[in-house]
Amino acid sequence: MIKVSVNGEIKEISEDLNVNELIDELGYTTKGFAVAVNTTFVAINAYEKTVIKENDKIDILAPVQGG
Question: What's this model's pTM, rounded to 2 decimal places?
Fold first, then answer.
């Protein structure tokens, strides 16, 4: 297990997760997230190859409906 910050909250997650696996492990079910790792935006096509490391700061922004 490693510790990371997700949306400002410290979480323990499994080691060697990529962004897709992290989203699944955290229980997010909606699709279409914007994700930044250490303040750098991660494109959807890079989720599989972007591996989360100890002490990373992850921001996950879910889509919001409004009107």
Answer: 0.85
